[in-house]
Amino acid sequence: MVINQQRLSNARIARVACTALLFIAYFVIYEMFELENSLNKKNSHQKNYAEDYEIVTTDYGWTTKASKNFTRTIVMGEFFRAVLSHQNYNQTAWQDLEKHPDSSRKLAVFLDIDTCLEFNYPTYQAKRWWDNMEKDHPATGGFLNHITESCQYIQRAAKSPALLANPASKLVLIDCSGSLRFYLSNVCRKGSREFLQILDSPQVVTAYISVARKHALSHDIGLPPPAIKPINLTSEERISIDECIERKYLFSFQGNPGHGRDQMKTLNGGDDVYINLVGRRKYVKDVTVGGNDAMNYADIMRQTIFAAAPRGDNLFSYRFAEILSAGSVPVVYADGWLPPFNTPNENKEQAFDWSECAVFIPESDYNNTLIILRSIPNSRRCKMQQCALKAWERYVSSRAGWLRGILDSLPYTDLESLV
After folding, report:
1. Domain of residue 249, CATH code
2. Do 215 and 354 have their domain in common?
3. What is the pLDDT of residues 61-84, one digit of tens each?
4. Fewer CB within a 10 Å sphere, N or C end of the chain?
């Protein structure tokens, strides 16, 4: 009788355990589903409009027999191949539509000419900037030469009947420069007074890695920086984020103290905060691809909930992408920076809500960082980490992600026509 009662008790315990496990599994799946929905969009604009774009490339440079005569940065080579691999890409559409414009076809047009002044990827602070150019498309001329030559082709594409036939079609330009003086709008207008008028057209969208909202046109969008040294999480580390297992550090930062970062010294006051300010030379040597990671940067990131992504010489930070790759939440100090896949109009709906995945702190409020972060509940921190990792995987980890984010953003560059 005692044995039977023991068996009955064990069976009840097993049923309760099974029910609990099923409830936990349901809760985790539900939360992941809700997060995926928020990443994909909160209304039908993206679904109904972004997927309608026919992806095309011009036939001026890399798609021609003279392809090797046109230089190309490594990052733009990756992006161009992502465009060619998209399921909606039509290889012959541009040629066909220039001869026979069709107002019923909505195009997302990308140049087969380099417009991206990015010389830190994949080798950060390369002594020879041309090392970050594709070897099959070697650098010719000076630092700006391969961007300057694109100006004439931008004007040509913007005036094409293929683009102008449908007002909803977009010509998308990739501008990777961190400095205002090297933006396409400044480099190209020197040779043409009408270039700014071209950029003013709502059909010409510039995607900037580093731009202040005040310097972007209403129909422009942000773009994430490429990750120089992404952190590759193990499957166990990914599960720990899904299960909301708390990490060792609430907040961390490693890097040189320029641009106000020296204020972080005052934040290093607890076991859950890791601050390591080092000289620029040591930092650059450590983060360069092939560096030995003497500062244990990757492991610190793996143990961090919130990680600083302060602006550097320019508004953006490569850390922004690397932090996301670690499933950490970027803490951005870059006043006015236009975040990836957002438009400058803060009063309009955006394609992506970064407040779900990142914390933005004014540069004047460095000293309030820990107060702000400690006020965020643990449950909220966990959801932000999950969002950050999803954003990395969907939009930031690859140039295919860049393309996906751009296409998701295009309907929001002209919201007035959609409401």
Report:
1. 3.40.50
2. no
3. 999 999 999 999 999 999 999 999
4. N
